[in-house]
Each structure stands twice: as structure tokens, then as C-alpha cells.
Amino acid sequence: MRLPVIIPLCALTVLISCSKQDEHFGQTEITRWKDNKPAAISITYDDASINQFRQALPIMDTLGLKGTFFINTADIPGSQFAPKFTGRPLEEIIKETATSITNAQNLFERASALRFLNIENAIGTHNQAGALYEQNKPEESFKVVDDAYALARKKKNASTEIRPVLLQPPFITWPEIKAFAANGHEFGSHTISHPRLAVLDENNMLYELEKCKEELLNQLGPESTFSAECPFGTENERVMDYALKVHPALRNRMPEPFLVELNRFTSHTPGEYKKQKEYIQWQRGPLKRHTVEEMKSYVDTLLRYDNVWLVLTFHGIDGVGWEAKPHQEHKAYFSYIKQKEDKLWVATFGEVTKYMRERMSGSAKVEKLKDKISINLTHTLDKNQYNVPLTLKTYVNSDWKKAQVKQGAETVTTPTLADSVGTFVMYQARPNGETIEITTAD
Ligand SMILES: [Zn+2]
Fold first, then answer.
1. 11 CA → ligand 1 middle, Å
2. 307: three-class secondary structure by DSSP
3. Ligand 1 center to 327 CA (angstroms)
4. 46-81+174-341: CATH superfamily
């Protein structure tokens, strides 16, 4: 992206100096990724199963990599909001199913209540109904719901305040999560209790989304309410509409016009889209059957382009959680990523999202003076939420060996670099902060 450069008129007194300036003196761009690296990677985890924290996170800490954890807050002891049904009395709904079959009008209410029926595998049956609905098989989904209610009607206590549990103990605790977050790992919503949101009615969907957000806000603070992943990787339009009003960033889908999204279920590759958009988000979800060599190949593919963001999604580890992989594979894979860190920007899902959005709505206004470049870096987003520094690349004179970059109270002296265009300096800058001033430090 070429950014506008304001070229000041040379005053007569500095004409000689101006004429000495290199052709590209002052030309500034916000680099596509932090530190002008050719690719970005985010390592994400779903469901908060215990070995993500006992096995994978320590490996990442040893290597200095930060991850994103999408957690179900009901599975953390001491959470304020338990899974519950919000709506008419459950007994009333159960009674109605004796005389009316499930259809498109009542599916969402019944599928929401289904998780709280006192039948064997109520959660699994709700999930099955949701999966069929999302596979565009509504009639089959209605049948699953009808069969479940038929079982419930035979019971004396047909409904229950059961707590739909995704995990078995041991659970991770809030004090531990707080310490991980303080160490730079990102935490985001995976809802309270992992329902099939596509078949929840409005009240129950909003309860799962909004109360999970409130729990994260109360326990961890506003940073942990930025990113979310709606369960089962759903891309259901109705769910996305609701969820994007609650969270600015969803791993499921993003609203950006500048981003191609290849979700973890696709067989399409970044190469097919390399010139279509400014950025490509390429998700890969390694399962048990995927070898470390296959996982390494994602990184090798990434490095063939300059606009791809690899988003890895992991689940179970060492026998605990869905599609559990041995932690030794994480260790080998993360070490491979670390070895290539000079070419890879490894950052949380939220940080990469913020960087892209700030850059795409940002501008660097340049004023060239005698032996000095002044730059005002701004973006049009919410300044409290979008506070990630951006990497700028500014061309200077070819005889500058070192440059001093000053923004407010911060001053950095850095050697200049050169490419085919000319001599430049690369540095981090805070958007909407003080004017950046670049001078020679020779
Ligand atoms: Zn999940």
C-alpha cells in the first residue's frame, strides 16, 4: 500500500539541502506485517482442556511464543454464569411437543431447551440436531428433536437444571488463567457451555455470548473480550450477525473487505487467492492423523507468499479433549516455527487482527524538512481498543548510516538498511501518538 506523502515546498534558504535529498527521502509505508516479516502465525486453542495449559503452554513459554485460548467459562470453577435455559417454563414446552411436531417455527426454542431435558445424552442430541440443521437437513434435525422430547415425556422429572459439562476435571482455574494472560497469552470467548448456536433462539444465544463476555470482562479485563470463536467452527449467518455485535473479532469469520478467509475445513490453498485481497487468513486445524511433517508444510507454504496469516487451531492434548495430539508433536512443531521466526511474526489472534485493521485504516502523513522527517501516524478506529504499535519503513538519505527515531519520550537509534529502492529505517510507532521525528544519528 502506497501512502500519501505530503511534499512541502522548499523554502529558498533550504533549496540546497533539498536538492541533496535522495529521490525517495521521506517516503513512508506501514509494513504489511510487524517488523516487515513476510508472514504471520497465530496459534489458537479451543475448549480449555487441561493439557493445553499443563503441556502446550509451557512449551510455548520456553520458546517465547504467545497463544490464544478460546475458553468455555462454565468449565472454570468459580465462574458466575452457569449454563441455563432462558425462556418459558421447560415443562410447558415439553407438554406442547405431545401435540405438535417440531418445525421451522419452533425449532430454535425446542433445540435450546433440549440441552436441559432429563434424558440420556441430552447435550449430544442437541449437538446432533444442530449439526443436521447446519448441514441444511432441517427435516432430519426436527426428527432428532421430536425423538428427544418423546423420551423426555416418558420421564417423571422431564427437565433438569443440569450443567452441560464439556470437560471432566481437573479444570484450569481463574487465578492460573490470570497469570497466563499477564504473561501475554490471549484469552477469548468460546461461549459459556459450547452449544450449537445456530439452533438456539435469540435469548439463549445472547445469554451464551453476552454472559461469557461479561465473565471474561469481570475475571480478566477488556482485553479478553476482543476475540471469540463460536463453537464447532460455525459460519451460520444468523450466528455471525449476533456474535459480531458482541465481539470485534471472530475466528469463525471476519467482516473485513480486505481479507480472504480460508477456514480450517477447506481444501483451498492460499496460492489460489494470492492476488485477490491484501490479506489471506489460512486456517489449519491439525487432527490426530496430521503428522508433524504435514504441519511443517503449512509454514513452508506460508513463506512462498507475503500476505498470508496462518491461524492454527488445536484442541485436545495427551488424551484429554477432542482429537488429542501428543504434546511431543507440539514441541517439534513449535520449535520449527521458532527456528523460522526471523521470517514469521508469531502473535495472538487479537494482535494480528488489530495490526491489520490499524494498517488498513491508517495513514502516515510525512513532512520533509532539512535533514529531518516528521511523520504523523493515525488511524480512524477506537483508540482504546486499537493500540498495537505499527511498523513503519521510511526512506532516508543514502549517506545516513544510523538514524534516530523519536516519538514523544521514546528515542531509538538504529542502523539504516537498504533495498532496491534506497536506504531506509524501520521502526515501531504508536498510532495517534506524538509526531515521529527522524534524523541522522551519524
Ligand atoms: Zn470447541
1. 63
2. coil
3. 19
4. Glycoside hydrolase/deacetylase (3.20.20.370)
Residue whose C-alpha is closest to residue 181's, from 326, 320, 71, 34: 71
Q: In angstroms, what is the span from residue 50 Cα to ligand 1's centroid? A: 14
| Set of cell numbers at residue 357 | 485493521
Q: CA-CA distance, 378 to 376, in Å (whole number)?
A: 6
Please list, in sequence order, all residues whose beta carbon lies within 8 angstroms of the beta carbon of residue 328, skipping any fewer than 6 positions away. Answer: none
Cα distance between residue 268 and residue 282, in whole Å: 9
CA of 80 to the centre of ligand 1 (A): 20
CATH of the structural domain 12-34+354-440, one choice from 1.10.155, 2.60.40, 3.40.50, 3.40.1350: 2.60.40
Parallel, antiparallel, or unpaired: how do β-strands 390-395 and 344-346 relate? Answer: unpaired
Average pLDDT for runs of 10 along the chain of length 442:
46 44 95 98 97 98 98 95 95 97 98 95 96 98 98 90 79 97 98 97 98 98 98 97 98 95 92 89 97 98 95 97 97 98 98 98 96 97 97 97 98 97 98 98 92
**What are the residues whose beta carbons fall under 8 Å from the beta carbon of 95, sequence distance 6 or more?**
none
Distance 231 CA to ligand 1 centre (A): 5
Distance (angstroms) between ligand 1 centre and the Cα of 32 equals 31
